[in-house]
Specification:
327 residues; single chain; six-stranded mixed β-sheet; Rossmann fold; DNA polymerase, domain 1; alpha/beta
């Protein structure tokens, strides 16, 4: 994977190149560098869980009795990302609470009841930790973290060379646009542009909500429809991109997945449920975001604020590798 693809905003590109690609209409002499801006959007909730359950993560009891091993790992992981990605414009989105407006729409949607309480107790500390690193943080109550990430990506895609959503969540594949908005899986070190989304799911990004509605998403409590699996859903949606475009009778389908008649019957009987599930899996792009793009420019770690956070959580500030201080 190219380091340039996920970071290095100040990449030393030659004039005539934008984002590593030749751009007609830009010309010059002397090999002058130009600025390539990539906006990184971090899935803070996922990163907290990943840090807490990382193999070898040791307990870190805070002053209030909460084990903050996840927060400690999150700080180190985020600093490492900021260092390696050469990031300049960064924001992180968190689920301040697990419940959202979707719980009002569907009783079976995920709740905090299924969340590991050792991680749940660290939610407020995690948001404070990234703020102490100088990162803009969006805490979500009515909406979910993924909604804010999607809204921010769509809002600023025309203002930057690339938006990189740092999350493996398949929901976010729906806002991928070419190679302008991509997702990045840090564990696999893999970038998913539009081509990669189609290769993985068999459908284009705009059909991802329909795909998840049919197949289901156990992590979010979306049950899907009986009999519909990844292969049948991708086969049908590749030809009929939206649920309502699928002919009611399998006799009229131009594709023939296994058990087509049964699949068509289930969809006819549960079309309203399928549309409801699609509503649940569709990310909201109207999340209110107060910041401007310039507010997301990372200036380094505020030394005093970071020290105060470490004191509050009982962490050793010297154990973290801070490569850039704001003051």
């Amino acid at each position: 994977m190219s380091r340039l693809l996920i970071g290095a905003f100040e990449a030393p590109l030659q004039v005539g190149e934008v984002g590593g690609h030749l751009s007609p209409g830009i010309a010059g002499r002397g090999g002058r560098s130009i600025r390539v801006v990539r906006l990184h959007l971090l899935d803070g909730t996922y990163e907290l869980f990943r840090a807490h359950f990382r193999r070898g993560a040791r307990p870190a009891p805070g002053p209030d009795g909460v084990d903050v091993r996840g927060v400690r790992g999150l700080i180190g992981s985020t600093l490492r990302f900021l260092r390696e990605a050469g990031a300049t414009h960064v924001a992180a989105s968190f689920d301040s609470v697990i419940e959202s407006f979707r719980n009002d729409v569907f009783d079976g949607y995920k709740t905090s009841a299924g969340i590991d309480q050792a991680v749940h107790a660290q939610f407020p500390h995690a948001e404070k930790a990234l703020k102490a690193l100088g990162v803009v943080v969006w805490g979500n109550v009515e909406f979910e973290a993924d909604d804010a990430l999607a809204a921010a990506a769509v809002r600023w895609v025309e203002d930057v060379d690339q938006v990189v959503i740092v999350s493996p969540d398949k929901d976010l594949a729906q806002v991928v646009v070419g190679d302008r908005i991509v997702t990045y899986n840090r564990i696999q070190e893999k970038v998913f542009d539009e081509t990669a989304v189609v290769e993985k799911f068999g459908v284009r990004p705009e059909s991802i909500p329909d795909y998840l509605a049919l197949v289901g998403d156990a992590a979010d409590g979306v049950p899907g429809l009986a009999g519909w699996g990844a292969k049948s859903a991708s086969t049908v949606l590749a030809r009929y991109p939206r649920i309502e475009m699928i002919p009611p009778s399998a006799d009229d389908w131009e594709v023939r997945p296994r058990s087509a008649e049964k699949l068509a019957a289930v969809l006819r009987e549960r079309l309203a449920d399928a549309c409801l599930y699609r509503e649940l899996t569709t990310l909201r792009l109207d999340v209110p975001i107060a910041e401007s793009l310039s507010d997301l420019e990372w200036a380094g770690v505020p030394r005093r604020r970071f020290g105060e956070l470490c004191d509050e959580l009982g962490l050793d500030p010297g154990s973290f590798r801070v490569h850039r201080w704001a003051d």
